[in-house]
Amino acid sequence: KTIVGLNIALQNALNGRRVKFYCTDMTRTEIMQRIAAIILGININAFLPHKITDALMGKLVEVEKRLAEIPLVFDFSTDTTIEDIEHDVLMSEYLNPYDLIVVDYIQNVKMKDEKIDRWQRIAAVTNRLRDIAKANTTRVLGLAQINRDGKKFKGAPEVYHLEGGASLEQTASQIILLWKDPEDAMCQEGKNIMMLIRKNRLGSPRVDIRVLCDYSKMTIYDSTSF
Predict the structure, then answer these.
(1) What does the pLDDT look like over 8-17, one tens digit per residue?
(2) E runs forming strands in 133-192
(3) What is the pLDDT of residues 135-160, one digit of tens each?
(4) How many CB atoms lie within 10 A of CB 29?
(5) Is residue 142 within 8 Å of 105, Cβ to Cβ?
(6) Are 49 and 74 in contact (CB under 8 A)?
């Protein structure tokens, strides 16, 4: 999910759109390594602890400089609340609106009210992200995890396999599920990866799109391009 989110965020920023990426899961170093793989074509395995060199660290500095030249901003706080996101987007509307925000990931976003349970929080966060998109000029891409049943399921996942699936299904304009068939050897090579559209208010609700993923460079391609 993070690879998809990063590729979408980078592509939009490179096209001049202002993007905010809320990363509640990975560290700054982990994200920079993945961006280096995407932008510079560096094999992600080069960042394994026993392989890192001074030259490679210099590449990360180069990535930081490139990021400073495009309208892509990261938030690496692990305590990000939905209230923080709402305030951030509202303030940006007055100064320099975001064209897109990416939330990685929905289930990890907190609320100031710590008394509600996990499922209520997921529903509340999802609803308020929808409200952000409706009330402002900002598009919202929320990344989400599969629940335990979905991870055990042998076939392609469905919306109800998302953690907090009911609330996501009710509020999202579009839901796309990623699926890598564990029994398909080609999937291990990055082939036959499926993007499954399972809700789409703007078009066909069930469309399966085959994509290619270069795991070494953290990049996803439309399979029709090859």
Answers:
(1) 999 999 999 9
(2) 139-143, 174-179
(3) 988 999 999 988 888 778 888 889 98
(4) 11
(5) yes
(6) no
